[in-house]
Amino acid sequence: MNCTRVQDSFIDYQDGTLPADEAAQLRRAAGERRAAAARIPEIELPTELGRPASGKVVRRYGTVAHERSKATLSRRGIDLDVEAQAFAVAPADGVVRYAGPIRGLDAGVIVDHGSFLTVIAKLGALSVPIGAPVRRGDRIGRAARHRVYLEVRVKLGPGGLPIDPEPLLAKRSRRAR
């Protein structure tokens, strides 16, 4: 099947037709993209977040070359080096939308803060159930080992748009409650 890219990400098959279900999916996706783009001016980005745990940032957001394989990896969050089983806390006020296993990140918590979400992971024991309101500094779990992961996603598009959380971290975190 020969196909070529044309404007607006639609695919033009050799015979000039597109199966009806694919055409409908592409029209729906284009509409969702336009709706998301229209929301950009309304989105409130976080200006400051508390640290989810005390520790130094040891893995940063963005792309990095793997030391051994030289493969390019994309990191959507940061890792903090922490004491073994250190408490992890909510970085801002919100509501727990998920608490449980996260592939590749041990267990974690996803907190909804209104226009953005945070993912706090690499946790062993979790302290909060789904639906629980949390305040900045509330305990949400303990580190599984010596790392706690933080990811920030702006509510834009399917799954949200990840942004670098490091510039948002407060210089000093509030004590865990």
Describe the protein's architecture and organization.
This protein folds into two domains: 3-42; 56-168, Glucose Permease (Domain IIA) (Distorted Sandwich). It contains one helix and 14 strands; from the N terminus they run ββαββββββββββββ. The chain has one helix spanning 20-39; strands at residues 3-5, 11-13, 56-59, 62-65, 72-75, 77-81, 87-89, 94-101, 107-112, 116-126, 133-134, 139-143, 147-154, 161-163. The strands form three sheets. Strands 3, 6, 7, 8, 9, 10, 11, 12, 13 and 14 form a ten-stranded antiparallel β-sheet that branches. Strands 1-2 form a two-stranded antiparallel ribbon. A two-stranded antiparallel sheet has the order 4-5.
| Mean pLDDT across all amino acids | 84
Distance between the termini: 60 Å
β-strand number: 14
User: Which term fits the overall shape?
Assistant: globular
* SS-based class: mainly beta
Question: So how many helices?
Answer: 1
Largest sheet: 10 strands, antiparallel
Low-confidence regions: 1-10, 173-177
Strand content: 35-45%
Under CATH, the homologous superfamily of the largest domain reads: Glucose Permease (Domain IIA)
Following the backbone from N to C, one meets helices and strands in this order, namely EEHEEEEEEEEEEEE
Determine the CATH topology of the largest domain. Glucose Permease (Domain IIA)
Radius of gyration: 20 Å
- Architecture of the largest domain in CATH? Distorted Sandwich
